[in-house]
Write the C-alpha cells for this entry.
Amino acid sequence: MESSSRNKLEKFTKTSNDSIRYKERGRTKGGGRREMLLGIGFLMQGFRCFPWMAVIFFLKDGLRVDPSTLQILQNSANLPMVAKPFYGLLSDSFYVFGQHRIPYIAFGALLQAVSWLTIASLPSSSMSFFTITVYLLLGNLGASIVEVANDAVVAECGKQSANDSGSSSSDLQSYAWVASSIGGVLGNLLGGISITQFSPSAMFSFFGILLTLQFFITISVSERSLDLPKSPSNHGIRKQLSELLLVLRKPEIYQPISWFAASYAIIPALTGTMFFYQTQHLKIESSVLGISKVFGQVAMLLWGVVYNQHLKSIPPRKLISMIQGTMAVLMVSDALFVNGFYRTMGIPDSLYIVVVSGLLEVLYFFKTLPFSVLMAKLCPAGCEGSLMAFVMSSIALAFIVSGYLGVALGSYVEITETDFSGFQKGLLIQAACTVLPLFWSSVIPEYPKLKTQKKEK
C-alpha cells in the first residue's frame, strides 16, 4: 500500500458503459472539458505508483533500509494527506481570479513537479534518507491538494447530475475511479519494466515532466468553461469551517466516517515486511512485482465497471462488510503462503504473488467506491470540498496509524530483513484485526432517498 495507492477516491475511463451513458445524457461542451480535466487528474493520481516503485527499490538497494524503516517512510510521507480538510476549506472558501478549483489543481501539480524533478537532479551520493523524505513530503502535499480539488469537482457534479436528471451520482465517481485504475495499470506496468532498465533518477524525471505537462494543460482551461454548479459557499473560511463542523455533528455523517477510518486504522499493515519477504527471501524479480500490481490495478478497473453495472443497488453496509470479510480471508491465505502451503500444492510463488497478493493490495480500496458514492449523496451543497477532504484525510490518517501498528507488530513477532519466522503469526493477527470492524458495521447507513434529499434542500 504505497503512498500512490492511498487516496484513493480514484477513478475514470471511456471503456466504462456508465461513463458513456453519462456523456450521452445531454452532456454540454463544458462537461467534456470537465471530464478531460478530471481524466488527466485522476490518471496522474493513479500513475504516481510509477515513481514510488523506484523510491522503494532505491531505499532498499541504494540506502539499505530495513523493513521497519521502509514502512515508516511510506506512511510518514502521507502526513500532508491528513491536512486535506484545510485544503478543502481553502478550495471552498477562497477564489483565485474568480476560480476555486482550477488554481488549486494547477498549484498542486506544479508542487509535485518541482519535488520529483529536484529529487531526480540530486546526485545519488548525496541522497540521504532525510533528504528524500523531505521532498516526498513536498510531493505528497501537492498531490493531496490536487486530490481535494478533483474530489470536490466530482462531488459537485455528481450531485448536480443526480438532481438535474435523476441519474446516479455514482456515474462520475466510477468515471474517475476507472481513470485512476488505468493510471495505476500503466504506472505499475511501466514501473516494473523501467526499474531494471533505467535509473531511479530517470524515472523521477519522467514523472516530473508529466506533471509539468499537467500543470500547463490545467492553467489553459478556464473554470467557467467547465459548467460547474454555482456554489453558495463564497464566504470566509470561518463560516465554511463552522458549516463543516455542523455537518460533522450529524450521526449519519460522522458515524460512517468513524467506522470507515477505524476499519483501516486497526489493521496493522505489513506491506514493508511482505516486500522484503518477496524480494529478499523468495528472490522474486521486480518484473513479477510489477505484474502483480498491474493485476491489482486491472482488478480495480473492473471493480469500477462491475460496481456501476451490477452492484450499486446493493446496500453499502452489506457490500462494504463483504469486502472487509474477503480481506480477512486473503490475509489468512497469505499466512498459508508464508508457511509454504501453496508451494506443496505445486503453485509457484510468483503465480500466487501476481494473483492473490496483487488482489489483496487493492482490495483495501474496493470499499472506497461505494463509500464515496454514499458520502457524495449525504454531502450538503456548498460543503463538498470540505467534507470529502475530511473523509480522505481520515482515511490517510488511518493508513498512517495502520502502518505504525504494522511496525509495532513486526517488532512484537520479531521480524527482520533476514528472519521471517514470526511472519505467519503476524499475518494471522492482522486477519483477526480485520474482522473486528464487522461487529459494528451497523453504523453504515443505507442510501438516502433522492426525494428526501430534495425536500431537505
